[in-house]
Specification:
Elements: E1 20-24, E2 27-30, H1 40-65, H2 71-100, E3 109-112, E4 117-123, E5 127-132, E6 137-143, E7 153-162, E8 165-172, H3 180-196, H4 216-224, H5 230-234, H6 236-251, H7 260-265, E9 274-276, H8 287-306, H9 309-315
Antiparallel strand pairs: 1-2, 1-9, 2-3, 3-4, 4-5, 6-7, 7-8
Amino acid sequence: MSANLCVDGLPSVDPLNKGAIHLDSTCLEYHDRYFLFRGWGVLGGGFFALFAVALAAAVSYGFLQSSKGQVGPVFWGIAIMVLMCGLPALYALKAFVFKDAFRYTHYPIRFNRDNRMVYVFTGGARQTLKVPFDDAFFFINEDTGAGGNTVPLYDLRMHVLQDEKVIHTVSIGSDSGGSPGIILAHWEMIRRFMDQGLDALPFPPLGLFASSRVSVKNSFIIPFALFNGPLRWILSPFLILIGVTKYIALVTSKRPVWPKAVDAECRPANGGRVYKEPIMYGDLPGGQAGEAAFMDYWKKAEARARLVDKELGSMFPLPARL
């Protein structure tokens, strides 16, 4: 679904909050989609690297045990094993672990309705990108994974264009599972904020529940929130492991800091409503009554969004798969 969402005639849906971490009269900020997947690279890359090192150590020990005092063959045998196993281990660390840990905890996206600009935290030498909201290309992305029969996942993405070429792409907030309609509701929250302002959003009953704060508790809440019922407890040993690696990935990373110029441009007027991310992921304001109102609105808005899935498919046909 690669058509630009900044068009008229889209199906009507209610706004849904998918990963907002700050909201006031001037600024709406989201974490990036991959924030929720942190820890997987540490888990996969770390396991592969440890396996390679263990294999090299075991074979080297075998060489030593059978050497019978012959130094030369043992030296070259161990050297070859270190290269054969060490190089894949280094590749796993670079390709997976170091792309997950020792980076930034998240890469936020900030929408400023006063000057109609979008700010993207990229890290690195560039640090931030600034693009006019009306010049960005927003679309519903379908991620089908590696297999042809894989259930698709949808997320909201933005292309930053320069001379009609894509120079950067960012995934905004969290995905919707298999419903493009829910991503349209995600987009509706952004569109309504930018065009009509904070008062046009249903806050409350909606509230900010996502948290980018690094803590042991938050690292375990996110993977466990993916499953319900008995399946959660069946998978609990694996989910605990994911929680541990997520915490490692986040605690070794730096928290992003917006440049002072960006903060100055996004500073809200005094006295307005400000919604901040909770300390613990999933906490909602208003206690039990606030949570009940949130869930009632969420279920109705999500059900309405799912009703437009087929309509979106006909409006934005997917390219044929090979």
